[in-house]
Design goal:
This protein is mostly helical. The chain is built from 20 helices and 2 strands. The chain has 3 domains: 220 residues, no CATH class; 26 residues, no CATH class; 224 residues, no CATH class.
């Protein structure tokens, strides 16, 4: 007979119960508890070994935990700074928590999904009446359950180290908040990568480890700074930074969770729907915009340069952001072919649609349709981006550079639309693994032109007009150069390229939409 808590768990989330039941074996639980206790013992013994064996006025010591007194040019250790010693233990445990729960959890999740795919049980789970949210939540909570157990056993020592070090408890809760937010974000991202076909657990765990390095450095710097700022108002700045990070991770986790649920229900669909992409775009930019609004200070030349460098920084990160959006929205060849063929048959069979409603139906398909090409939807997202950031530019104090800044923004958005058209065109090619082809071709188009210009010693600040036609034109634009006329010529050139690529894409889609019988007849 099952106990009442387990019966309630089974009723609430059968998938979570399945994961816990499969992992909570006596041997596995004993190993998790023993590993946690052994790790705590090793940490304590390591730091005990760093303490001076004896201290007093007559012993000259050079130890970082000593309270030092200099007498006649000699440094004496009169006592031990236990708060500093506990602070190092707190930081060590924090790093171990991050490494174990993030790298280990990501590895276990991806390995579990890879095993489910290999055995065919994942498709069997899809047929169950449970909702996708419950199944995926059961995976997130149940697969790394032994890691959660090991971390929970270490929490008392971690809490005691925080109290003994003199750090504020608010900082501890901030750390736990960031840890949970980062954990949820990376777990969702790992699930999404697994559903996209990246089932090499070691690879995703390695990427997570690389991502972990800057987080550890931030924790180290913040704990040191917070320790120095005890009793001052500086701790509030750390809490504000933590709140901003947590908000960004929560928003990112929300949208990745939507994408994971979508791919779980339909493995052949795009990562995100067109409708959701418009909301995602607005959410991303409205989260980013307040950070840039803080730069709107003063109206002197120095402030203008700061604003301009901020615009260059935004154009760069916006390019890589839209590369992710393009990858998430662009449908595969078969989906576009089905869409084109369906519309072709609809035109032949529905005379009412031809006379009255066809244009409206096509427009709705391009804006909202699941299988239609993504170029129009990406264009709408670019319009949303342009409107939001043009408003930011119009708030600048220097009226002389506003026009130049808006033209720079238009050039960056034009390039993104060209890249989107090229990606969709490559995905329609009849080749093996078109996604890899798209990544390779687009990566070459983005990286090779600036590399070639740099190898030829053609620098952005000396040959700005030539750099206007590269993949990073905003790097060559400054407050005073190049001329507005040159920028307008570059924009017209971008529109010409976009027109040619769009016409080629339209011809390709029409060709795909022709049925086999039509091909034989013609």
């Amino acid at each position: 007979m099952l106990s009442k808590p387990f019966v309630n768990l089974l009723n609430w989330n059968p998938q979570l119960f399945r994961e816990i039941k499969g992992r909570f074996k006596t041997r596995n639980v004993a190993i998790a508890i023993s590993a946690s206790l052994l790790c705590q013992f090793i940490v304590m013994m390591f730091f005990l070994g760093k303490l001076p064996q004896e201290y007093g006025k007559g012993v000259v010591l050079y130890n970082r935990y000593c309270i030092r007194v200099e007498v006649e040019k000699n440094i004496y250790c009169t006592a031990i700074d236990w708060s500093y010693w506990w602070l190092d233990i707190f930081k060590a445990l924090s790093w171990i928590f991050l490494a174990v729960i993030l790298i280990g959890g990501v590895y276990m999740l991806v390995a579990d999904l890879a095993k489910e795919k290999r055995l065919g049980t994942l498709n069997f789970i899809r047929l169950s009446p449970q909702s996708s949210q419950k199944i995926l939540l059961g995976k997130l909570l149940g697969v790394p359950i032994l890691i959660y157990l090991a971390i929970a056993i270490s929490l008392p020592l971690h809490l005691w180290a925080n109290i003994s070090s003199g750090l504020s408890l608010s900082w501890l809760f901030g750390f736990y908040g960031v840890l949970i937010a980062v954990c949820y974000f990376l777990y969702n991202a790992s699930l999404l990568l697994a559903f996209l076909g990246v089932t090499q657990a070691w690879l995703i765990a390695t990427i997570t480890g690389i991502f972990l390095l800057p987080i550890i450095s931030i924790i180290k710097s913040y704990t040191d700074e917070s320790y120095a700022l005890i009793g001052t108002d500086g701790i509030r700045d750390l809490l504000i930074v933590s709140a901003i990070i947590i908000l960004g991770l929560v928003l990112g986790s929300y949208w990745i969770w939507k994408a994971v649920n979508r791919r779980y229900r339909n493995p052949n669909s795009t990562i995100i729907s067109k409708k959701k992409s418009y909301w995602l775009m607005g959410c991303f930019h409205f989260y980013l915009l307040p950070l840039f609004l803080l730069i709107n200070i003063g109206n002197d030349e120095k402030s203008s340069y700061i604003l301009w460098n901020s615009l260059i920084f935004f154009c760069t990160i916006n390019l890589f952001w839209f590369l992710l959006v393009i990858a998430s929205l662009s449908p595969q060849r078969q989906s576009v072919q089905d869409w084109a063929r369906y519309r072709h048959q609809q035109i032949n069979n529905d005379e009412t649609a031809i006379v009255k409603g066809l244009a409206i139906s096509l427009k709705q398909d391009l804006i909202w349709g699941e299988k239609s090409p993504a170029l129009v939807a990406i264009g709408i997202n670019l319009v949303i981006t342009g409107l939001i950031w043009s408003s930011w530019i119009l708030l600048w104090h220097d009226n002389e550079i506003k026009l130049r800044a808006i033209l720079t923004l238009i050039m960056s958005l034009n390039l993104i639309l060209i890249y989107a058209a090229i990606v969709q065109l490559v995905l329609l090619m009849k080749v093996k693994k078109p996604a890899i082809w798209a990544v390779g071709i687009l990566g070459s188009l983005i990286s090779l032109p600036p590399i070639a210009l740099l190898l030829l010693s053609i620098l952005p600040d000396k040959n700005s007009n030539l750099w206007l036609f590269s993949t990073f034109p905003w790097l060559s634009i400054d407050l005073n150069y190049p001329a507005i006329a040159s920028m307008l010529i570059a924009i017209i050139g971008q529109w010409s390229v976009l027109t040619l690529v769009t016409l080629q894409l339209t011809r390709k889609i029409r060709k795909l939409g022709r049925s086999n019988s039509q091909k034989l007849l013609t």
